[in-house]
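We emphasize that the prediction below concerns an isolated chain of 126 residues; any contacts that depend on oligomerization or on bound cofactors are therefore not represented. The input was used exactly as deposited, without trimming of termini.
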Amino acid sequence: MTEGQKRIPKWILIVSGFFAFMEIMVSFAICFSPESVLETVDLNAKGIDYLVYMWAVRQFALGFIFAFATFKKSIPMLMIAYIFFLVMFVGDFFVGISQKENSLIIAAVVMCIISSAMIFALNKRK
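Result of the prediction step, given as a token string:
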């Protein structure tokens, strides 16, 4: 173990592992049961399956990145993953505003706060 690996608290690894697991599970739900995630989308529309699979792959990639960074106990890798998470949820916030969907806005704000707090916590460990 290197010096950088010793300094990551277990709670950060647990939270990061949880996010990895959740992102991978969301990707499977989107891929194998899109109607459970996309209630308001016409899944029979031409080309929608392409978008659904693109979204599922995005979620899987983020989950894999979190899992790998957590497994490696790498502060720089976790920082990049949480920065990506933050950018993604800032985007979701603006999508929620444009769609007037309060639940997406609230979830995005909460996840932006969590992502920012994790970035701050990891930055203190550098």
